[in-house]
Amino acid sequence: MPPDRPSAASRPSLPWNVKILGVASLLNDIASEMIFPLMPQFLITVLGGNRFWLGIIEGAVETVASVVKLWTGGWSDRVGSRKWFVVFGYGMAAIARPLIGVIVAPWQLLITRMGDRFGKGIRTSPRDALIADCTAPELRGRAFGFHRAMDHLGAAVGPLLAAAFLWYYPDQFRPLFLLTVLPSVLVVTLLVLGLRERSAAVSAATQRVPGGQDARAPAVPIASKKLAWGLRSFDSAFRFYLLALVVFTLGNSSDAFLLVRAGELGVATPLLPILWCGFHIAKSGGNMLAGRAVDKIGPKRLIVFGWLCYAAIYLAFALATAAWQMWVLFLGYAAFYALTEPAERTLVANLSGAEQRGLAYGWYNAAIGIATLPASLVFGLLYQLYGPLIAFGWGAALALLAALMLAAVRGQGSGIGDQGSG
What we know:
Blueprint: H1 16-33, H2 39-46, H3 51-79, H4 83-96, H5 106-133, H6 140-168, H7 173-178, H8 181-194, H9 200-206, H10 236-250, H11 256-264, H12 272-297, H13 299-319, H14 323-350, H15 357-386, H16 388-407
Helix pairs in contact: 1-6, 1-8, 3-5, 3-15, 4-5, 4-8, 5-15, 6-12, 6-14, 10-15, 10-16, 12-14, 13-14, 13-16, 15-16
């Protein structure tokens, strides 16, 4: 080993709050992903819905959540507290999610999914800001990579549990959905007892100390001031990044359509949770590796390359002709997530100060969520009327355009360049 390269033992560990939030995401996604891979089939075969209904539900709930993400992100900056936004958001999901087991109509699925996503909207921006608050800048890619990896690991375990349940109790969707209350209660308990409050004011001071990772400090309220919700306080690099993100997201419909495509090509319904499990295992491992790469080479390169990968994979989904190809393509699609998830969140932190970091993540999540409704509606309509080639081709074209837009940016603000921080 070269003498100037630190050993694994000497590398600073991730902050306590990052680890707690990672475990919470693991448990939450176990519950969530026991439902999600089965939801399209449940909607179509049990509730009597169709692909267009799927587009309405997935697009509408994400758009509602996006507005909430913007509000809670900015509000957590103002009050100087993030913990209880996170706890309440996970608590709402814990209540709404099991109710899917008792609904009888597509519009009721819309309501229950909206409650679940509303909870996600409350927690997401404060949670991402909390991770950035308590993590030194040179470790942010690794921290977000770890969090996303734990999230996807839970999303791999959930489908396995669902598959095992359906193996012994075929087609018993409703009891399975009701059982999701168990890991959900564990999430809320863990956060209430384990999450240590953090404020932007304290984190700014902590991050000036090498490896500043003391997540034990009590909350220090930020001075009360009028909260500005607009983008004028952010520089042009952040605003252009959001624009490219919106363009990409307009072609990035709900992943539920990929499960529909897999079913069309012959992947049996009992195998869909297994397919979803393998997909998330690949995303989990990929995020751990890519998170470290973000800290070494910078986030922009990975985002651009990830969006180009997305375009290629989406075209391949359209052109696929056999069930076995779905297993390969889902692994390729996982690479896109690994390349972009930690990089996108790291870039947000790099382009924003601690005093408005919650608002920055609010705008980041809002940009994605607002574009998700038209994305899923348009994709669902194109899929219903013209088939997979036109629908997936639309997504690939917008991903290519977004990659070109982001690649054209040169040196506008800290954090958007090609260099890393390490």
